[in-house]
């Protein structure tokens, strides 16, 4: 099919759903895949969470990667079917709106949008350590990555740079994401090859061991799993990968800027998740096999740089640059996705100042004001870096732990918010099927639609509970991930604020005229 025919087909489907083409439809399948893959970002996830996964589950935690990727593939298949049926900006918001109703869709969009913008702040703040290290090496500076001013300046600069690139056209966003794919490939497979050439210190059997982390006496974090790996350590260690393997859905957020979106977006989602899983497994395998004979305690204490220290200094610097680019590409992709959700909600009149937020740049064909929201809100979240109590704070029935930066608590919400919005979206697809919905897009699951949707919903619900469960602050889950009650409470606060706004302003009434597939 020629590009003109594809453009006409895309426009016809958009018109059938009640919209006209405002954004620039310039992204190819590879561009769309690149944005989704850059958001998922194996390098960002592993460089952020490898030590946590290793300390919680030992080397055996690597085997939770194929489990999480396999089960999340069920979700990607459901989303693929929905994106093919409704190839619209805002993805999850649109799916909930059409499958269940305007109020349901609005809540999904509210939760998902907040989670995305919280993710921008968390991802971009993760770049600080690596930028500071590189600056200190190259320019002999003395930047402290834990300093509040350093964190704010570097993270804020990254957020602004991403906003500028996102504003000047979807094609630029696609090129940044393409760069991210190349960098991720080098930074995952390249690190494995470099470590292998230098010489691994462990045999393959090492990756099947726990190194006794399920016992408090041998756990490098000092957390107590009661001697149970499967029912204790594994349930916490799996979160190190649960926190990584999403973001593929952002392929749907940019549907209106993707050529032949109904066919290409479902492919991009599946490919991003599959390639992300393979790249992550290879990188983690290389890091595990490179563990020094002194044991995992050395790695827990010094992080991934301890493993790379054996490489030539120029190669260490090269991989450091790759990590920085991966973080930047990831943050840019997430910001772009979050802006599209804000644009989609505003276009339906579902946000305050919707008339301004739905504005599209006549020159660049990008939702410039929605991108501004995707810049300002992460900046406000970034102010949480200033909240870092020196001692535990007792609030009502729970305790906010000492020396836990409030921005980290927001990071934990970002994942729980994503999983909640994912679960509501798949649940919405199940509700639609029960009402008689029969998918008619270019990609459908056929008779497998119901069992795949049930499997995906079951996985999301179980992992959501695993993420937010408010266990004791001395437990592995609380120490390493959700800080006891904090993650659950932050999520409830976001939901309650949304409920209050929805109950007073009733944005669903403005969404309703846009919720019928004509």
Explain the overall architecture.
With 518 residues, this protein is mainly alpha-helical. It has one domain (27-514): Amino acid/polyamine transporter I (Up-down Bundle), CATH 1.20.1740. 68% of the residues lie in helices and 1% in strands. A two-stranded antiparallel ribbon has the order 1-2. α9 runs antiparallel to α16 (313-347), α19 (406-434) runs antiparallel to α20 and α19 (406-434) crosses α22. The longest helix is centred in the middle third of the chain and has 35 residues, at 313-347. The radius of gyration is 22 Å and the shape is globular. The two termini are 25 Å apart. The mean pLDDT is 94.
* CATH fold-level name: Amino acid/polyamine transporter I
Radius of gyration: 22 Å
The side-by-side strand order for the widest beta sheet comes to: 1-2
Q: What's the CATH class label?
A: Mainly Alpha
| Integer average pLDDT | 94
Q: Tell me the structural class.
A: mainly alpha
Instruction: State the helicity in percent bands.
Output: 55-70%
Count the strands? 2
Low-confidence residue ranges: none
Second rung of CATH, namely the architecture? Up-down Bundle
Element pattern in H and E: HHHHHHHHHHHHHHHHHHEEHHHHH
Termini separation comes to 25 Å
**Main sheet properties:** 2 strands, antiparallel
> Helical element count?
23
Name the CATH homologous superfamily.
Answer: Amino acid/polyamine transporter I
Beta percentage is: under 5%
Shape: globular
How many domains, as an integer? Answer: 1
């Amino acid at each position: 099919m020629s590009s003109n025919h594809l453009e006409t087909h895309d426009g016809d489907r958009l018109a059938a759903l009640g919209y006209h083409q405002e954004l620039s439809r310039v992204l190819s399948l590879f561009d769309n895949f690149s944005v989704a893959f850059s958001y998922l970002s194996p390098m960002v996830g592993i460089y952020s969470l490898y030590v946590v996964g290793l300390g919680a589950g030992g080397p055996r935690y690597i085997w939770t990667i194929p489990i999480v990727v396999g089960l999340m593939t069920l979700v990607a298949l459901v989303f693929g079917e929905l994106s093919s049926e409704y190839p619209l900006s805002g993805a999850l918001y649109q799916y909930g709106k059409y499958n269940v109703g305007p109020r349901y869709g609005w809540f999904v969009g509210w939760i998902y949008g907040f989670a995305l913008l919280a993710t921008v702040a968390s991802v971009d703040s993760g770049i600080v350590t690596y930028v500071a290290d590189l600056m200190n090496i190259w320019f002999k500076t003395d930047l402290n990555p834990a300093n509040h001013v350093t964190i704010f300046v570097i993270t804020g600069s990254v957020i602004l740079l991403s906003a500028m690139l996102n504003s000047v056209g979807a094609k630029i966003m696609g090129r940044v994401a393409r760069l991210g794919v190349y960098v991720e490939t080098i930074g995952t497979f390249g690190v494995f090859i470099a470590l292998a050439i230098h010489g691994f210190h462990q045999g393959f059997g090492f990756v099947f061991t726990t190194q006794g982390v399920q016992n408090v006496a041998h756990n490098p974090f000092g957390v107590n799993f009661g001697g149970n790996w499967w029912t204790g350590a594994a349930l916490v260690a799996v979160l190190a990968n649960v926190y990584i393997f999403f973001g593929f859905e952002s392929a749907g957020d940019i549907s209106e800027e993707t050529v032949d979106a109904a066919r290409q977006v479902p492919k991009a989602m599946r490919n991003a998740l599959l390639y992300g899983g393979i790249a992550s497994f290879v990188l983690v395998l290389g890091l595990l096999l490179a563990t020094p004979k002194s044991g995992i305690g050395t790695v827990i204490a010094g992080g991934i740089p301890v493993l790379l220290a054996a490489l030539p200094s120029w190669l260490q610097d090269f991989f450091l640059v790759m990590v920085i680019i991966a973080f930047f590409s990831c943050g840019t992709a997430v910001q772009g996705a979050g802006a599209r959700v804000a644009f989609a909600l505003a276009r339906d009149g579902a946000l305050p100042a919707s008339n301004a937020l739905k504005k599209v740049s006549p020159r660049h064909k990008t939702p410039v004001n929605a991108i501004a929201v995707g810049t300002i809100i992460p900046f406000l979240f970034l102010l949480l870096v200033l909240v870092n109590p020196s001692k535990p704070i007792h609030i009502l029935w729970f305790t906010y732990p000492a020396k836990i930066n409030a921005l980290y608590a927001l990071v934990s919400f970002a994942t729980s918010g994503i999983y909640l919005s994912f679960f509501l979206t798949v649940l919405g697809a199940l509700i639609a099927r029960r009402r008689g919905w029969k998918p008619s897009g270019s990609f459908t699951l056929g008779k497998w639609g119901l069992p795949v949707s049930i499997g995906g919903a079951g996985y999301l619900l179980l992992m959501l509970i695993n993420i937010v469960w408010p266990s004791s602050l001395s437990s592995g889950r609380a120490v390493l991930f959700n800080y006891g009650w904090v993650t659950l409470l932050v999520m409830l606060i976001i939901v309650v604020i949304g409920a209050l706004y929805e109950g007073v302003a009733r944005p669903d009434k403005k969404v309703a005229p846009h919720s019928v597939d004509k």
